[in-house]
């Protein structure tokens, strides 16, 4: 444990981290990858280029400083990060590397303001935080390995089917090459795919939400092809999966992970909202509710740009016809000729109030602007925080 003096020093750096946090984390990643390029086989290069990963780390470091004397308050956030670490294969030996380069970055950015006393306080604090992560992740590795059908690290799966769901989304049905059982999962969780395209120097890892209920002898992921837009390059892994991977090919994946999951212990109404490819965890949750708790009231609302980019439309319509307790609604931002939807434009609070129960639990996922709009609407409506659940694709952001 840190003594009171070290805690006081760490807390004194909070204002500095608020101002210089992202500069520190950008410097950290640049230095670490220069010193340890092998770690580029683990980290998402796109998130580095777009600044998402440095921003997420800066937020985490800031939160650690603010709560350094009561780290238990950020334990849910720590466990969410640890889930991703386990899925990526982060090991205890990686933590000293991170610590060394993070302290060096603090010293580089803050210069003389980073006194020996401050560096020593952060060295001790990092050691404590790293031990928490290592302990939690060790338990997660054991659980992933020892569960029925579980495994450690990456396992080879055959692409049994490849199904085009829309102009931009394709589903991949994955069966284990060894023919043995696969681990079950909670609706909302993801698997991590490891690929190394021929023209790439490093291995690339990506998390993809499982897009069906956990009742099948296969996993299904539904991947949006990320095309180049203005200064944003095309997605390396999504394009590889869409254009290079075919039925019969092998993909390596790690066991299901993630803390964004459907609470199946409740019988209150549920409202599921998705934007674009954010439908993947929502469809898994929806199918699970309909199968396990068919009397539970559920509303599914999906927003897409138009019909050509809308995946699984027929599937959702079919489920809606089959289940009396399910109501589904469709919003197209820019409907094309022939498109049929319940609302054009965007989801707004006045409309949401006409279709959703204010006593429901709300789950949502999609692009960050979509999630910010939904979160703001729910807060304006007065929905309590404990009934608002959401998932970011990629590093955690803020809404």
Automatic annotation (TrEMBL):
Annotated positions binding NADP(+): 276-281
Marked site: Involved in heme-bound ligand stabilization and O-O bond activation: 29
Domain FAD-binding FR-type: 152-263
Enzyme active site: 95, 137
Site residues, Influences the redox potential of the prosthetic heme and FAD groups: 84, 391
Residue positions binding heme b: 85
UniProt cross-references to PROSITE patterns, sorted A to Z: FAD_FR, GLOBIN
One example GO MF annotation: metal ion binding
Alphabetical UniProt keywords: Detoxification, FAD, Flavoprotein, Heme, Iron, Metal-binding, NAD, NADP, Oxidoreductase, Oxygen transport, Transport
Listed cofactors: FAD; heme b
Pfam families: FAD_binding_6, Globin, NAD_binding_1
InterPro entries referenced in this protein's UniProt entry, alphabetically: Cbr1-like_FAD-bd_dom, FAD-bd_FR_type, Flavoprot_Pyr_Nucl_cyt_Rdtase, FNR_nucleotide-bd, Globin, Globin-like_sf, Globin/Proto, Hmp
Cofactor binding, per record: Binds 1 FAD per subunit.
Chain ranges of the Globin domain: 1-138
Region (Reductase): 149-399
Chain positions recorded as FAD binding sites: 190, 392-395
Record Gene3D superfamilies: Globins (1.10.490.10), Nucleotide-binding domain of ferredoxin-NADP reductase (FNR) module (3.40.50.80), Translation factors (2.40.30.10)
GO BP annotations listed: cellular response to nitrosative stress; nitric oxide catabolic process; response to toxic substance
NCBIfam families assigned: PRK13289.1
Protein task: Is involved in NO detoxification in an aerobic process, termed nitric oxide dioxygenase (NOD) reaction that utilizes O(2) and NAD(P)H to convert NO to nitrate, which protects the bacterium from various noxious nitrogen compounds. Therefore, plays a central role in the inducible response to nitrosative stress.
Family that this chain belongs to: Belongs to the globin family. Two-domain flavohemoproteins subfamily. In the C-terminal section; belongs to the flavoprotein pyridine nucleotide cytochrome reductase family.
PANTHER family cross-referenced by the UniProt entry: FLAVOHEMOPROTEIN
Name of this protein: Flavohemoprotein
Species of origin: Paenibacillus anaericanus
Encoding gene per record: hmp
């Amino acid at each position: 444990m840190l003594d009171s003096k070290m805690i006081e020093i760490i807390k004194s750096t909070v204002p500095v981290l608020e101002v210089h946090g992202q500069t520190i984390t950008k410097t950290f990643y640049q230095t670490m990858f220069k010193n340890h390029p092998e770690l580029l086989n683990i980290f998402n290069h796109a998130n580095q280029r777009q600044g998402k990963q440095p921003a997420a780390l800066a937020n985490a470091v800031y939160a650690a400083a603010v709560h350094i004397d009561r780290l238990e308050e950020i334990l849910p956030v720590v466990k969410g990060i640890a889930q991703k670490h386990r899925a990526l294969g982060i090991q205890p030996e990686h933590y000293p590397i991170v610590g060394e380069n993070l302290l060096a970055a603090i010293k580089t950015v803050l210069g003389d303001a980073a006194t020996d006393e401050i560096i020593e306080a952060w060295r001790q604090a990092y050691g404590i935080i790293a031990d928490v992560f290592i302990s939690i992740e060790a338990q997660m590795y054991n659980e992933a390995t020892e569960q029925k059908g579980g495994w450690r690290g990456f396992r080879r799966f055959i692409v049994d089917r490849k199904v085009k769901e829309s102009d931009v989304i394709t589903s991949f049905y994955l069966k284990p090459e060894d023919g043995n059982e696969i681990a079950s999962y909670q609706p909302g969780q993801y698997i991590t795919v490891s690929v190394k395209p021929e023209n790439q120097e490093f291995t690339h890892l990506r998390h993809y939400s499982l897009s069906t209920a956990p009742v099948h002898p296969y996993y299904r992921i539904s991947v949006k092809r990320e095309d180049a837009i203005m200064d944003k390059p095309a997605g390396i892994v999504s394009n590889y999966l869409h254009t290079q991977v075919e039925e019969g090919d092998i993909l390596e994946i790690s066991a299901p992970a993630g803390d964004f999951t459907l609470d199946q212990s409740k019988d209150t109404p549920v409202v599921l909202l998705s934007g674009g490819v954010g439908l993947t965890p929502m469809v898994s949750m929806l199918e699970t509710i309909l199968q396990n708790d068919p009397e539970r009231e559920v509303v599914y609302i999906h927003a897409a740009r138009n019909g050509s980019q809308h995946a699984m439309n027929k599937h959702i319509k079919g489920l809606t016809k089959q289940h009396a307790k399910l109501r589904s609604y469709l919003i197209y931002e820019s409907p094309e000729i022939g498109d049929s939807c319940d609302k054009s434009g965007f989801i707004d609070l006045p409309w949401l109030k006409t279709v959703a129960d204010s006593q429901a639990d709300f789950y949502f996922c999609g692009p960050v602007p979509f999630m910010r709009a939904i979160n703001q609407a729910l807060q304006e409506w007065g929905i309590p925080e404990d009934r608002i659940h959401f998932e970011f694709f990629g590093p955690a952001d803020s809404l």
